Every structure is written in C-alpha cells, then in structure tokens.
Amino acid sequence: MASTCALDGCGRVLKSHGYCDTHWKRVQRHGHPGPAQIGRTVQQRLLALADTTTESGCWEWLGRRQPSGYGQVWLNEKQRAALAHRVSYETFVGPIPEGLQIDHLCRNRGCIQPEHLEPVTAAENFARSTHPSALAKKTGKCGRGHELATHGKTTAEGGHIITRCQECRRIRERKAS
Fold first, then answer.
1. How far is CA 115 from CA 83, 101, 138, 147, in A?
2. Which domains does the chain have, with CATH numbers?
3. What pLDDT digit, counting tens, does each position of 17-37 carry?
4. DSSP class of 12
5. What is the pTM assigned to this prediction?
6. Does 176 score more than 70 pLDDT?
C-alpha cells in the first residue's frame, strides 16, 4: 500500500517530501502546504519565503525565482507575479518613486532585505552593475585589458551608447578568417 500525504485529511498518494504532488507544489510556491494566501499579509508571505538568518545579512528568497535569479511572488490582489525585491521594498519601506528601479546594494539578486535595496535611475543601476560595458566604463579598459581611450570606438545602438574595443574586434576577425 502506498504512503499518503502528511497533510491531515488529504489521503492522496505520497510524491515528495512527505506530501502529495498538489501540497508539495504549494510548499514550493508559498512555503506551506495549505491554501495559498488565506489570512496572510504580504509581509507575512515575504518573511515565510525568505531566509533572514544569513551571515551576509541578506534575506535570501527561497520561493520561485526567474532564470536571472530574481525572486517572484504571486500577488492575488493583482492576479500576477511580481519581483519579490520590489514587493519587499514597497511593503517595508514604501512606494518606489516613478521612473526608478530597485538596486541591490549587496549585489545579490535573491536578496529581499529592505536595507539592501535602494531606488535608483536605470543609468545608476547599470553603472553600479558588473556588466562588461559598465566595468569598461569604470576602468577605461575592455575585458582583455586593452585601453579603450586608444582602442575603443563608441557607437549609439538602440538608444544606448556602447563602447567596443577595436583591438578585440581585430583579434576576432583574424580568428574568423
């Protein structure tokens, strides 16, 4: 005889971690096997799905994540998923000013700790990032260490200003031919 789900009164066949398939999916999504959000505030839901005891001080999101590493939380009142760090900021701090993005000061995309989140412009968020173009702008060198002042070419593409290393372009062209 197959084992049954650990939730009282369920009786379905055990699938994973002591729960049937339905209740295990609820644990993964919401942090508990019961009905989704009944009687829980957004603040309670966020804290239930975060590890607030990390050494770094980050509140590490334990719920669903996007492939990029950002946490997602379902907002029943809006019938949509939202980015967990944005919901955390709005819940614990207040509204995000129009036209601003939330930057993770800790550089951890899975963090929802309000003290680690700051509203900034898109340009500031990019400048603080570890994107190769942002690093090149900060250091004046491409990823291979070539000086962009002598080897760089700046172009406008799709409304963005991009500096590309011409020495790296020459190396790529030599390898391709």
1. 17, 15, 25, 37
2. 1-35 (no CATH), 37-126 (3.90.75.20), 140-176 (no CATH)
3. 777 888 788 777 766 666 655
4. P
5. 0.65
6. yes
